[in-house]
Design a protein that fits this description.
By secondary structure, the chain is α/β, with parallel strands linked by helices. It is built from 17 helices and 13 strands.
Length: 388
Amino acid sequence: MEERAKSARAGAAVGQPRGIEQIIKAAIDRGASDLHVKAGDVFRARIDGKLVPLTKHRLTPEQTKAIAQHLLPSDEDRGRIDRLRDYDCSWGMPGVGRFRVNILRQRSSFMIVMRVIPFDVPTFDTLKLPPILASVAAAERGMVLVTGVTGSGKSSTMAAMVNYINQTQNKHIVTLENPIEFLHRDINCSVTQREIGVDTDDFRAGLRAALRQDPDVVLIGEMRDAETIDTALKAAETGHLVISTLHTPDAVTTVSRIVSMFPPDEQEVARLRLCEALQAIVSQRLLARADGHGRVAAVEILMCTSEVRELIKDPSRTADLPEYVREARDEYGMQTFDQHLMDLVADEVVTYETALAATTNPADFEKQMRALRRRPRTATPAEATPGQ
């Protein structure tokens, strides 16, 4: 009976603010990237890409609702919790970390998904990103797109770009985020961070306003519609550096997605504007490390040379972009996913099996890996360049 009472007390503690904060801290200590809290289930955390249980006790709907109330940022939001359906906010725990929080309903009960945002703003070095990204971030104007599926590290890469600009230049950086994730101090730049729904109504309104705020760099958390993309292109065309994201897996798909978001009669002009404004596309996927500790980004980098602009301009030739990137690696420092995957395998950062599962064309990747194993690997100019 005493054991049952102890178990009941432990289960009740999970739903209390102190109990939930202890579990969150334990998850962070184990390197969690995401936390899942759901009525009828145990507390789960994504660790090294796998969703694992952290507790034995299933949360009741009342406990999950209490946790959601604890994470809401204002009394006004807490007062209307029963009317919330999909809600985004950020939440911080002193000494532990900050979190991007999504509160949702499923089966009429609350569920909470929390994305961990480290206190320290990342750098290209800490993220193990290719050094050529320093050149991408140093662009004076144009559009830089960071793409990948949800959870592929796009926000961290963009934060590293902002951090690099902040450390090396004297500019005004305006960010539009939903919600604000990494907090940037004013170092050599003035960094203005605006949260959608709190500091401005939406991305479109915030972006239009940003262009009246004397920015040099504008970071847009996400471009969701043609109007936002159109305004972002105008910003790039008028001398600003625009950094944004799309949920696309690679460079070719990114070009097609942007063009397809415009009405059919505007797509040809949109393609021309994109090929002139685009500076680079950085696409990434997170892979499990061979040593079992954490994940590493496999990165495809497209730099907009004159030939790349011609390939983007002609829709019948856009599919040739990967072949051009592959051949232009040594000269311009760009790379395909498969080239980076081969490097990661050669350096024993990821296993061959992990890389094969992540590649776009497994048969071609196997063929290239066999050829690679027959010859010694030399560093590319981009790899020889010191990073941040």
